[in-house]
Amino acid sequence: MSQSQHGGGAGDKEKKKKETILDLTKYLDKAVRVKFSGGREASGILKGFDPLLNLVLDGTTEYLRDPDDAYKLTEDTRPLGLVVCRGTSVVLICPADGMEPIANPFMQQDT
């Protein structure tokens, strides 16, 4: 059998590109807020991302937690600058300027 029948070799130049779970292209160069596993939160300008949800944020600010209550955020912040966020620790990404309302897709229309 040739190498191409086994799935290897030089003939496999066209590899399937991994699809992203989320399409974040509409948020590029816009402010986003990110929550991480462990409770940390940060916001910054989304400069890039990859299929594994690794993020590059610029002008990043971390929101510090209360030392007595790990679940409570304080008014204190810490500037971080340019940051690479590992995708496995990202729990939530949302636009910093809020969300836009959409029609309920589950509601049946009366005809």
From TrEMBL:
Residues 19-99 form the Sm domain. It comes from Ridgeia piscesae (Tubeworm). Its main location: nucleus. Keywords: Acetylation, mRNA processing, mRNA splicing, Nucleus, Ribonucleoprotein, RNA-binding, Spliceosome. Pfam families: LSM (PF01423). This is U6 snRNA-associated Sm-like protein LSm7. The lineage of its organism: Eukaryota, Metazoa, Spiralia, Lophotrochozoa, Annelida. Belongs to the snRNP Sm proteins family. It is found in: Nucleus. GO terms for molecular function: RNA binding. Component of the precatalytic spliceosome (spliceosome B complex). Component of the U4/U6-U5 tri-snRNP complex, a building block of the precatalytic spliceosome (spliceosome B complex). The U4/U6-U5 tri-snRNP complex is composed of the U4, U6 and U5 snRNAs and at least PRPF3, PRPF4, PRPF6, PRPF8, PRPF31, SNRNP200, TXNL4A, SNRNP40, SNRPB, SNRPD1, SNRPD2, SNRPD3, SNRPE, SNRPF, SNRPG, DDX23, CD2BP2, PPIH, SNU13, EFTUD2, SART1 and USP39, plus LSM2, LSM3, LSM4, LSM5, LSM6, LSM7 and LSM8. GO terms for cellular component: catalytic step 2 spliceosome; Lsm1-7-Pat1 complex; spliceosomal tri-snRNP complex; U12-type spliceosomal complex; U2-type prespliceosome; U6 snRNP.
